[in-house]
Amino acid sequence: MFSKKNNTYYICVFFFSLFVLFLYGPTFTIILLSFQGPDGGLTFPLNGISTYWFEELWRGGSVVDIGSAFKRSIILGIIVMILTVVLSVAAGLAFRKKFWGSNVLFFTTVASLIVPSIVLSLGVALQFRLIDDLTKWIGSSLDISWVNDSFQTSLGMYSSGLGAQLTWTLPFGLLIMFAVFNRFDKSYEEAARDLGATPWKTFKEIVLPLIAPSIIGIALFGFTLSYDELARSSQVMGSGNTLPLELRGLTTTVTTPIIYALGTVTTFVSFTVIAISVGFYLFLKRKKGI
User: What domain range includes position 229?
Assistant: First the structure.
C-alpha cells in the first residue's frame, strides 16, 4: 500500500511525464520520420532508415537554397544577439537611476510584446515603404542620380528585418537586466571606488563578472528568438528569406520527408546554441570557483 504522500508524488510524476510527452513528442516524431528511406512518406510506418532526405535538403531539393537561408538566419541571429546584449546591459545600467521619460521609455519598449506580431510586422513594413517614397521624392527633387537609377527599397534583412526582430528580443533582455540590477548589491561597486577604481574598471572587474550569467541568458534569448522568428519577419525581409520563412513556404509545397529533415536540422542548431551557452556558463562558474 502506498501512503497518501507517495500517491501524490506518483500522480505528479505521471502528469509531468504527459506534459513532457506533449511538449517534445512532436519534435521526436519529426526527427524519427526525417531518417526514412527514399520511398518514405509523411506518416508512419517508416520505409527504411537512411539520411537520404538530408542529402536532398542540402542539394536544395529543387525547391529552396537551404544553405543561403541558413547563412542568413545565422548571421542575422548573431547581429540581433549582440545588439540585444549591448542595449539591454546599457539600459539596465541607465535605469538604475531615475531620469526624465524613463517610465514612458520602459512601457513603450515592453508594449511591443503585447502588439500582435503580424500587426507589428505590417507596421514596420509600412514605415519603410514610407521611407522609400520619401527617398525617391528627395532623389527626384534634387536630381540625385544614384537614387533615381539604383534605389529600389530600404526593406531588407539588415534594416527592417533587424528592427522588427529587435522589437521581440529587446524587451526580454531589458526585463532580465532590470531583475538583475534590482537585486544587485551596490556595496561591491562602492568598495571598488573607495579603493580608487575608475567607473570603467569597476564595471569591468566587479559588475560584469557578477552579471555574466545573465548576459549569457540574454544572448541565448536573442539568438534563439531571432533564429526561430516567423511572424515578425514575414513582411519585412525584402528579397531574402530567413530559414523559418523558407520552412513556412515548404509546408505548403512539399509533400516529402524533406520538410522533416529541415525541421530536424533547425532543432539541432537550436539545441546546439543552448548547449554552448550552458557550457559557457558552467565554465565561468567553475572559473570563479563557485
Answer: 70-253
